[in-house]
Amino acid sequence: xxxxxxxxxxxxxxxxxxxxxxxxxxxxxxxxxxxxxxxxxxxxxxxxxxxxxxxxxxxxxxxxxxxxxxxxxxxxxxxxxxxxxxxxxxxxxxxxxxxxxxxxxxxxxxxxxxxxxxxxxxxxxxxxxxxxxxxxxxxxxxxxxxxxxxxxxxxxxxxxxxxxxxxxxxxxxxxxxxxxxxxxxxxxxxxxxxxxxxxxxxxxxxxxxxxxxxxxxxxxxxxxxxx
Length: 227
Known about the structure:
By secondary structure, the protein is of the alpha+beta class. Helix content is 25%, strand content 30%. Strands 5-12-9-10-7-6-13 form a seven-stranded mixed beta barrel. It has a four-stranded antiparallel β-sheet with strand order 1-2-4-3, covered by helices on one side. A two-stranded antiparallel sheet has the order 8-11. Helix 1 (21-38) crosses helix 2 (63-77). The chain starts with a strand and ends in a 6-residue tail after the last helix.
C-alpha cells in the first residue's frame, strides 16, 4: 500500500496498479478494515479500481493518527479477500437501434451482427469496480474484447437516463440525463440512483452485474422511456 495526502482532511491509499478482481478485492478488504479502525472519526470512504479515498473528521482526529491507523488496518487486511463476495444484480436491458444509437455502428465496426453484440454483452458477468462521474454511475468491467469500443470523438451533450453504454472494455448505465461520450447500445429501466429508495443505488462496489435482454414492451412495462 502507498498512502498519500489528498487534502486537509483526506488520504488516498493505492493498493495496486491494474484493473482486476484481485486488486478490487484488496480495496474492498481495506475499506472494511479502515471503516472499523476509524469508527466515528470517519466521514466517508470512496473505493475505486485500485485505490481508496479516506475522508476523516479533522475536529475529532489528526493526520498522523489517521495515517497510523490506516496502515495498521490495511496490514491486518492483507490476508483477507472479498473478491468472491458481493451480490449478483440482474439488470434488464432493451437492446435495439431505437434504444441504443450506436448499436449498429459498433456491430459493423466489430464485424459482428447486432444479435452477436447483444449476446456477447449479456453473456458476461461484470464487477462493479467504482462508482463516480455522477451518483449511481457504476463502472463495470470487463466487456468481451470483441465488442470493446473507444469513446466517441465528439461526446453527446445529452444522453438519456438508463442508457447502457460501452467505452473501451468498460460498460455502464447512465443514472440520469447527462453529457456522455460512451457508445450507446440499449436502455435499462432500473433507476441506478434514487434518493427516495432504500438502498438509493441497486449496486455497490464489489457487486457483480449481469444484463438480461428484454423486448420493447417489457421495457416499457418496467417504466422505461423512449424519447
